[in-house]
Design a protein that fits this description.
This protein has 2 domains: 21-51; 53-143, no CATH class. It has 143 residues and is an alpha+beta fold. The strands form 3 sheets. It has a 4-stranded antiparallel beta sheet, covered by helices on one side. It has 1 helix and 9 strands, in the order βαββββββββ. It is elongated and about 55 Å long. Strand 3 and strand 4 (79-82) form a beta hairpin. One of its GO terms (cellular component) is extracellular region. Keywords: Secreted.
Length: 143
């Protein structure tokens, strides 16, 4: 896929696939094991309730054949390429973060809208620039 937008590459570009395949095997195996450990740890933290209940998570494919193994984020103005283990905070959306996991697959972290107490409403975010999920906190106005 060709993009007409500027491309911002985060991290080092991947090595050429022209090298002998046995050279890449240990690195790929280690990368897969690390990602499995990361997912396992995240699952444990989620089950233990250490993450805020007001946050939501979805698994998405951000892959693009033009950039194999990378997460490709196109926001309409530019394209950002993420390596495995890198994250990107989308500044134009409230508290949205994309974490690239493996082979173009990534987690999209957003805030659960929730429901304010009766006769109340949510106003602005308390700290838009805080890391996820702290950026999800919103002011509640009752009246």
């Amino acid at each position: 896929m060709l993009h007409s937008h500027p491309v911002l590459q985060l991290g080092r570009p991947r090595r050429s696939e022209k090298c002998h395949s046995s050279y890449h095997f240990p690195k790929i195996l280690h990368s897969k094991m690390l990602n499995t450990k990361t997912l396992y740890l995240f699952g444990l933290l989620w089950c233990m309730g250490l993450l805020q209940a007001r946050a939501e998570l979805s698994l998405n494919n951000y892959g693009d054949p033009a950039y194999p193994g990378r997460c490709v984020i196109d926001d309409g103005k530019s394209v950002v390429l993420l390596n495995d283990g890198q994250a990107l905070r989308l500044r134009n959306l409230p508290c949205v973060t994309i974490f690239c996991m493996s082979d173009g697959w990534g987690s999209l972290f957003t805030c659960d809208e929730g429901t304010p107490p009766e006769d109340c409403y949510f106003s602005s975010y308390v700290n838009w620039d805080a890391p996820w999920p702290d950026c999800c906190k919103r002011k509640v106005v009752c009246g």
